[in-house]
Amino acid sequence: MKIKYIGESFGVDSLTNGKVYEAAEEDGMYRVIDDSGEDYLYSKENPAPLYGSSKGGTWEIIDNSN
Prior knowledge:
The protein has strands at about 1-5, 20-25, 30-35, 40-45, 55-65. The protein is an all-beta fold. The chain is built from no helices and five strands.
């Protein structure tokens, strides 16, 4: 599946506003290959850093064909 992150960019190797990412649903979250090139779990409702440095954002589903 492809999803677009919409919100405040955070971290050099995390999520960038307007960027489309490869993702899969897992345990009510999205497993996303982020800017680090690694896959991490992010909230479906409010993807944000755990340490609270950003308010986060939302996802837009681009392609759900997987």
